[in-house]
């Protein structure tokens, strides 16, 4: 009885699922089938190419590509110069990784 009072309420919506990676045959297919977000990598031209492949997988599995948010991981300060390129390639969110101790 006590455990029932401490348990969190059941979920009313599915949890968001982000899958990161760029494998064209398996990873992007899994993203199309299951993910709510995809995290890819640069440079912008490569991100755009993988983004198009993900769109193709979505069509193959019968899913609207617009249902998947597109994120890109940036780990190099030089990549920050290409933010417009990432946006043009379809990135909706940026995930910026910073080295220790947060060097520029």
Write the layout of secondary structure elements.
Blueprint: H1 2-6, E1 18-20, H2 27-34, E2 37-40, H3 44-61, E3 69-74, H4 83-88, E4 93-96
Parallel strand pairs: 1-2, 2-3, 3-4
Helix pairs in contact: 2-3
Strand order of the largest sheet: 1-2-3-4
The number of E-state strands comes to 4
Helix content: 25-40%
What is the count of DSSP helices, taking H or I runs of 4+ residues? 4
Radius of gyration: 17 Å
Beta content: 15-25%
- Helix-strand string: HEHEHEHE
Uncertain spans: none
Class of secondary structure makeup: alpha/beta
Descriptors:
single chain, 104 residues, flat, alpha/beta, 4 strands
3D architecture notes:
It is a single chain. This protein is of the alpha/beta class. Helix content is about 35%, strand content about 15%. A 4-stranded parallel sheet has the order 1-2-3-4, with helices on one face. Helix 2 (about 25-35) crosses helix 3 (about 45-60). The radius of gyration is 17 Å and the shape is flat. It starts with a helix and ends in an 8-residue tail after the last strand. The mean pLDDT is about 90.
């Amino acid at each position: 009885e006590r455990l029932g009072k401490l348990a969190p309420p059941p979920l009313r919506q599915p949890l968001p699922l982000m899958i990161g990676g760029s494998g064209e045959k398996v990873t992007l297919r899994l993203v199309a089938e299951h993910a709510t977000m995809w995290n890819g990598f640069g440079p912008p031209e490569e991100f755009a190419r993988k983004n198009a492949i993900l769109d193709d997988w979505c069509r193959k599995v019968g899913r609207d590509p617009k249902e998947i948010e597109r994120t890109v991981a940036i780990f190099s300060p030089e990549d920050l110069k290409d933010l417009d390129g990432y946006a043009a390639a379809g990135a909706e969110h940026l995930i910026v990784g910073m080295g220790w101790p947060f060097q520029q």
